[in-house]
Amino acid sequence: xxxxxxxxxxxxxxxxxxxxxxxxxxxxxxxxxxxxxxxxxxxxxxxxxxxxxxxxxxxxxxxxxxxxxxxxxxxxxxxxxxxxxxxxxxxxxxxxxxxxxxxxxxxxxxxxxxxxxxxxxxxxxxxxxxxxxxxxxxxxxxxxxxxxxxxxxxxxxxxxxxxxxxxxxxxxxxxxxxxxxxxxxxxxxxxxxxxxxxxxxxxxxxxxxxxxxxxxxxxxxxxxxxxxxxxxxxxxxxxxxxxxxxxxxxxxxxxxxxxxxxxxxxxxxxxxxxxxxxxxxxxxxxxxxxxxxxxxxxxxxxxxxxxxxxxxxxxxxxxxxxxxxxxxxxxxxxxxxxxxxx
Length: 342
Hints:
Pfam families: DHH, DHHA1
Radius of gyration: 20 Å
GO molecular function: nucleic acid binding
Number of domains: 2
CATH architecture of the largest domain: Alpha-Beta Complex
Low-confidence stretches: 338-342
Number of strands: 12
Number of helices: 14
CATH superfamily of the largest domain: inorganic pyrophosphatase (n-terminal core)
Oligomer: single chain
Shape: globular
Domain DDH: 19-170
Strand order of the largest sheet: 3-2-1-4-5-6
Domain DHHA1: 239-331
Helix content: 40-55%
Largest sheet: 6 strands, parallel
Protein name: Bifunctional oligoribonuclease/PAP phosphatase NrnA
Strand content: 15-25%
């Protein structure tokens, strides 16, 4: 958490005279949108209006959140997004640890902004900012926003709208409270959000019960050709650009696909490789169990990073070459070799 002195300074910054802007990472997920909108609602009740700007569009199943439609999407409204960031006096950077994680368009705007920058994030190895609340033990940035509001003396400003957003982010980033980062404190926070009006069944249904025919067709395709490597310890899943187009891919359709590989008995790491729909790179998702660190693995080999058990990456080769390189790397990767004795 921020130091008491930091909190006093941040309180003084949160005034009507200052322009407050909230930004999050490229390809925003439930925690990114939930923390951004949750903070926006808390700040409004605190007496401060804030704009939320995201680099690109986010899945439809997250657009039920209060005021999600008021978010400025930089890919669609570049001039407006740039002007908002340029006018910021205070910039909250949520759920990412470096401007580069906001994408090629927004990263320079964030880096060159003259604003006071406040980071709240749970990923490893954060860049330096004016104020930093970084805690890799937290399961979701939304839980950190709750903690921040509490430390700020603004927990009473978590209303129904904020509670719904924060609950959604915690729910999605903990895999429905299944991941090992879920703590007793997580459940205490969630209990308070429920008492403030968040409805678990409505939020889960709005977020997860949104399957489309294209999603099921893609899931059937990917499961039908899933492969195992490294003596059955690693699951490999792939999708091509042509397949995405054939089945009418929509943003969010492949959410959670990588977890199917990890659910196989004996699998300790799952890797999902997908050709980007518009650009020439491979988008990669990694998941792992126990102490197998896919964050360091992705940082070392695939231009990415994230958490110990969940990370992403990019690779600028063909899909076939990417998978071939991955298979070669895992055969010699010390962290995977060490897992043989588990």
